[in-house]
Amino acid sequence: MKNRSLLARAACGLLLAAASLGLTACKANYYEFPQYNFAGRPIPPSNLANRVMVAIDNPSAFSGGELQILDANRDIRSNVENTIPYFMVSGYSGRLPTSIASFPEQMFGYVYGSGDGSYTRIDYSKEAAAGTASGLPSTSDSIAVTSSTANFYAASGAIGGVIVVDNTLGRTFALNLPGAQHVMVNPGNTVALVTQRNTNNLYRIVRLVNNILPPSGTYTDCEPLNLPVYCVVPVQGTYARPTGAVFSLDGTSVYVLNCGAECGDTAAVDHAGVTFLNTTKLNVNYLPVSGDTSPMISTLAVPGGATVGLTDGINLYLAGQELMTSTTATGSFAQFAGATGYFTGVFSIISLGTTPSVTAAYPIPDGTHTTMLFADDNTLWIGSTLCQGGARGYLEANVSTTPGAVNLNCLAAFTMGGTTAPTIVPAVSPGNPVLYPNQNTNPYYYGDLTGICWVQNLHKVYAAYGGQVHAFYTSNLSEIDNQYITVQGTAMNVVYMDALTNAAN
Quick one: which H or E segment has residue 84? Predict the structure, then answer.
């Protein structure tokens, strides 16, 4: 009996061991990476291969800001087993994070905290804060940096100037320019442009050689006064409230975006549109000389002007707003004939041939357009803020009697190469409300579009939309159920950390 008992126990032990091995062998590995990850990128602490980082304002009563990481492959904020409720960027302490300069090719980004003026470097491989940029003003209207991080440029109306942080020299320079508003730099860090609030002026940054000043009258300010290193120099040309710039893919041209009437230009002849500049005389190393000729190549009037733009090398895509009048509310804009005196959004396509020309203009959401990006399925996405206050908002309040009859949402998607007007996303109607309303529970309106990113090759875009995270398929523009990607606090911006190129954000 004793021998039989021992044999039975041994047999049971073997069965249990086999069962245990079988269970272990069958356990799913949800986060398996390929043997050779793209560009040799390390596996991050979260083990997520497709990460969207969300900048969140006021996530709790004890924090003014945080950065959360979502799994954009599965559209969840936790791990698959739900043992980790959410993933965070460790060590981030900025307040009210808003804008993000993202460089996924180099695996880092910079997040601007509008509540404390911080500019924090985020290491994408470690999912952690990696220090803050020093020398920047406490309040910046605009900050520009390239992947080399050799220089940081900040425009600040509060201090009335432009800050240049030269990391090669290890020095910071403050150039006087009252009303400095927007600063733009090309990917090669060879051209840096600055606009001035409520003016038709454009400036560039110049780095001096051997501390020798340019000729008198060719510059606005050079600093420091003794042994100057940098100057801010006017750029001759015709502008109408310039607000931004798009750099050509070949690096030879700059397309200056003129906002025009939308930004308060009251000139009898509105030059809203694009000013084309040659980059040769805009180079940071090109010193101005007396009698220098303008780098301007030409100007092109564009209905509604532009506040944001993007190019694919063949076309220039622009978004702005046009004032509706009896002469402008025609064609595809005839629907706004009852809203004269109000601005409405315009999406324009410029052919970049020998003689650039406007080839198409379509209605898009109203408001200040700040975001534009390419995505999968040959789509282009345009976002704006304050979109309910334009011509569409007027029609909704004064003409339409059915809620949802006028789509007031702030995001639109355009299929490139087609002739169909951009679609407002989500595409609501009286009987088709939004699928996933935000906390305000508005059944037809999400709110401001403050950030968007392209989740490459997964046919999705993620957006900070009305203070919450929303995601859409690029194939049919339908919305993805966002119940598992919503965040605590106000979502202000999103970036795709694992993009193949820096252009995805």
Answer: none
Distance CA 466, CA 491 (A): 8
Backbone angles phi, psi at 334, to 5 degrees: -65, -25
Q: In what order do the strands lie in the sheet with 411-415?
A: 368-375, 379-385, 411-415, 423-425
- What's the gap between Cα 132 and its chain centre? 20
> Using an 8 Å Cβ cutoff, are 437 and 443 in contact?
yes
Which of 473, 484, 384, 486 has the alpha carbon at shortest distance from 438? 486
Q: Average pLDDT in the 139-161 region?
A: 97
Question: How much is the average pLDDT of 455-472?
Answer: 98
For the chain, the domain total comes to: 1
In a domain, 394, yes or no: no
The verdict on residue 456 lying in a domain is no
Range of the domain at 241: 134-254+278-285
- Measure the CA–CA gap between 103 and 500, rounded to whole angstroms: 10
Gap between the Cα atoms of 5 and 439, Å rounded: 66
Q: Does residue 238 lie in a domain region?
A: yes
Distances from the Cα of 345 to the Cα of 60, 417, 424, angstroms = 36, 20, 11
The tens digit of pLDDT for each residue in 252-285 reads 999 999 999 999 998 755 679 999 999 999 999 9
Higher pLDDT, 481 or 27: 481
Q: What pTM did the predictor assign?
A: 0.92
Residues 121, 228, 208: CA angle, nearest 5 degrees: 80
- Are 180 and 162 within 8 A, CB to CB? yes
> Edge-to-edge strands of the sheet including 253-258?
242-247, 253-258, 273-278, 296-301
Q: Does residue 401 surpass a pLDDT of 80? A: no
Would 482 be classed as within a structural domain? no
Task: List CB contacts of 67: < 8 A, sequence separation 6 or more.
Answer: 53, 54, 55, 56, 88, 89, 92, 97, 111, 122
pLDDT band per the 50, 70, 90 thresholds, residue 17: very low
**Spatial separation of the C-alpha atoms in residues 112 and 96, rounded to whole Å:** 8
| CA 447 to the chain's CA centroid | 17
